[in-house]
């Protein structure tokens, strides 16, 4: 008996599903799944998923062996990350399928899709929200949009901040913060079916009701409803129903708000967090003698991804960017190279002109050389030739001793006295002809002596 394995890679957990076909009492086959969940904690989700798949494939359950593995991926970035992680584990018998197509496959097999034609998927997980419009007839994703402004991790932090503020506790230890946040996530999950939750722990007691939790998350959920309405408005086909998948779909307030904002039938499948893993298991097909990749895969009709791991040609077209005309690009590169080469040639010619364009006076032979240096007259390209005596060896002159620099204080010179000012010009009487008046020298005044008593 052979089995298939379906895997979905989330930010907080890696989920695995195995189909279990059993006969119903009426004689019809009933589709059921066996589930396994591995929390990522501090590990990278893609690496943990590859290690877990390797362990599962290495196990032997008698005659039950896993013949095929399907792995659901979220976007192009995760597509390359999963490929790298699987290559490190030397695993090649697997298929990568988009999460939207995996969800559609499960909804078809379970019959929950009903008679709807074009559906919208609201996938709220720990790392973000993905909204996709899928054509049921072709399986193509007509429109997709993802945001990290709302996520399950944001809901956990809202609960954590609320509880810490109520208790007046400031957790400084990172271990205590991680433990407290984990219990907040558990409280969020329990509030989907309970009216209130009380979780004691070393870092404090978490006590919160569903009403308090809904008051914290109403604004971000309404924000996501606006995004859903915008995507549905821009869809090239009319959307018939909205399906909620992912762990966030278990929150009752999500379904209520989306139904009132969109006006569409809203369906939440059973165990919405495992829909992608179940669909990946249904789409898994064996890969025989798949060669190990020796180089990073190349994205079809698009540039390399930022992480260095690109998608293979099996990636869906709706995730690939617009095609690029390679001929135009190569022509631009050739023209650019020609312009750069011309610029370098001009710079080189200018450098030659500046380096050798000095005057004859600035170039002279050293005084201690054995033979004079003869330079050619100035021209476009100047060369210098040195005439050596007819001898097989030329002895270099002994180096001259380095000059010794001395410093002498400048002698102070007393400035010369300023010359005497010239005598003033003789006075002139306005209105009369110019003539020189005789200079009259008055006698000194007489000296009077007072009588002494």
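^ Assign residues to that structure.
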């Amino acid at each position: 008996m052979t089995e298939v394995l379906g895997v979905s890679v989330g930010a907080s957990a890696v989920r695995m599903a195995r189909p279990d076909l059993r006969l119903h009492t009426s004689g019809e086959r009933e589709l059921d799944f066996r589930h396994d969940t591995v929390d990522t904690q501090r590990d990278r989700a893609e690496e943990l998923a590859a290690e877990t798949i390797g362990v599962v494939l290495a196990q032997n359950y008698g005659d039950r062996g896993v013949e095929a593995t399907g792995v659901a991926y979220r976007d192009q970035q995760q597509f390359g990350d999963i490929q790298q992680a699987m290559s490190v584990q030397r695993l090649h018998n697997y298929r990568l399928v988009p999460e939207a197509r995996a969800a559609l496959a499960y909804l078809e097999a379970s019959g929950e899709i009903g008679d709807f034609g074009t559906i919208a998927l609201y996938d709220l997980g720990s790392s973000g929200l993905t909204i996709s419009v899928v054509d049921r007839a072709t399986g193509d994703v007509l429109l997709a949009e993802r945001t990290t402004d709302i996520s399950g991790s944001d809901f956990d932090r809202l609960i954590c901040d609320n509880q810490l503020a109520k208790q007046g506790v400031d957790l400084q230890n990172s271990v205590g913060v991680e433990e407290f946040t984990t219990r907040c996530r558990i409280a969020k999950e329990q509030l989907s079916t309970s009216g209130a939750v009380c979780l004691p722990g070393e870092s404090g007691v978490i006590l919160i009701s569903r009403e308090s939790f809904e008051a914290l998350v109403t604004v971000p959920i309404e924000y996501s409803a606006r995004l859903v309405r915008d995507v549905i408005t821009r869809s090239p086909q009319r959307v018939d129903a909205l399906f909620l998948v992912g762990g966030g779909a278990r929150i009752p307030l999500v379904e209520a708000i989306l139904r009132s904002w969109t006006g569409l039938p809203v369906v939440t499948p059973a165990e919405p967090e495992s829909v992608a893993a179940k669909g990946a298991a249904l789409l898994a097909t064996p890969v025989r003698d798949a060669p190990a990749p020796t180089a990073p895969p190349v994205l079809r009709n698009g540039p390399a991804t930022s992480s260095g791991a690109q998608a293979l040609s099996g990636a869906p077209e709706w995730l690939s960017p617009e095609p690029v005309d390679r001929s135009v690009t190569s022509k631009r590169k050739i023209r650019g190279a020609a312009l750069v080469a011309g610029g370098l040639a001009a710079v080189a010619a200018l450098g030659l002109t500046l380096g050798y364009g000095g005057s004859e006076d600035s170039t002279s032979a050293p005084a201690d050389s054995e033979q004079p240096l003869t330079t050619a007259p100035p021209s476009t390209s100047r060369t210098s030739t040195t005439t050596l005596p007819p001898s097989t060896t030329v002895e270099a002159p002994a180096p001259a001793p380095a000059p010794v620099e001395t410093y002498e204080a400048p002698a102070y010179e007393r400035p010369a006295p300023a010359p005497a000012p010239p005598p003033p010009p003789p006075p002139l009487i306005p209105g009369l002809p110019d003539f020189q008046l005789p200079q009259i020298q008055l006698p000194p005044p007489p000296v009077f002596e007072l009588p002494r008593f």
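The domain at 116-268 is CATH 3.30.420.40 (Nucleotidyltransferase; domain 5).
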